[in-house]
Amino acid sequence: MNPDQWRTYLVTQASLSAGRSTDEIVDAAIGGDIDVVQLREKNRSARERYELGERLREATADAGVDLLVNDRVDLAVAIDADGVHLGQSDLPVSAAREILGDHATIGVSVSTVSEARLAAISGADYLGVGAIYGTTSKPDADTAADGLGLEQLANIVESVKIPVVAIGGITPENAADAIDAGATSVAVISAITAADDPTAAAKALRAAVVGHDAAESGDDGADDANGTDGNAAVGVDGEVVADE
C-alpha cells in the first residue's frame, strides 16, 4: 500500500498497553482496519524486537497491513518489513535506501519546514509530523510539551509533495482537524494501545478520518466505506485515551 493510501497508523508501545501484549494490541488494531503498524518498542532488546517483529510481520502480511520498523534498518531487513521510519538522528534516507532498496517505504520524523524539505529531497516516501497537540508518549520529543499546532502542520504540508502523517495527541475527536490541515493520515500510540477496547478505538479513529474524506467529497457513505455504523465512532467506554 502506498503511504498516500494510508488513513490510520499505529505506533506500538507496550508500556501503555495495560498489561496486554503488543501482539494483542496489533491484532485488535487490525480488527479495527488499521492501515499500517510501526514496530517501536525502544525499551526492548534487539533480539526481543526481532522475535516480536517476526510475529507482527506474519499478522500484518496476512491482513494486508503495512509493517514498518522504527529506526532500525537492520531489523527491517531481518523481518522483511515493508520499510522503516527514521528520526532526525538516525541514518540518512539515502543510506537507508541503499540498504533497503527502491521498493521499501521510508518515512522521516520532522517538525520544521526545512527538515521536511530536506527529507523529501533526500527521497523519503512520507513524513511523520508532530507532535501536533503535544505528547506524553514521546516525552523526549522537542514538541512534546506544547505541540506544533495545526498551522505549522499546514505549513509543512504545503512545503512538500509527499504524504504527511500527523502524530501527537491525535484522537477521534481531533483527527479530522489534522486531515483538514493537509495530513493524509493520522498516527497514534495511546489512543489505541491504552484504550479499553483497541479494536473499537481503531474503528473510531478511522471513522473520523474517512468521515472527513467523505464530507469533503460530498459522499454520505462514510460509514459503509468504513465497515461501521453511525454509532461505532463513539469513544471507548465514552472516552478514548490519547496523549501522544
In short:
By secondary structure, the protein is an alpha/beta fold.
SSE layout:
Layout: E1 8-11, H1 22-31, E2 36-39, H2 46-63, E3 66-70, H3 73-78, E4 83-86, H4 93-100, E5 105-110, H5 113-121, E6 126-129, H6 150-159, E7 164-167, H7 175-180, E8 185-188, H8 190-193, H9 198-217, H10 222-226
Report on this model:
The protein is of the alpha/beta class. It has one domain (3-238): Aldolase class I (TIM Barrel). The protein contains ten helices and eight strands. It has helices spanning 22-31, 46-63, 73-78, 93-100, 113-121, 150-159, 175-180, 190-193, 198-217, 222-226, and strands at 8-11, 36-39, 66-70, 83-86, 105-110, 126-129, 164-167, 185-188. Strands 1-2-3-4-5-6-7-8 form an eight-stranded parallel β-barrel, surrounded by five helices. Strand 5 (105-110), helix 5 (113-121) and strand 6 form a beta-alpha-beta unit. Helix 1 (22-31) runs parallel beside helix 2 and helix 1 (22-31) packs parallel to helix 9 (198-217). The longest helix is centred in the C-terminal third of the chain and has 20 residues, at 198-217. It is globular, with a radius of gyration of 16 Å. The two termini are 25 Å apart. Mean pLDDT is 89; it is low at 221-244.
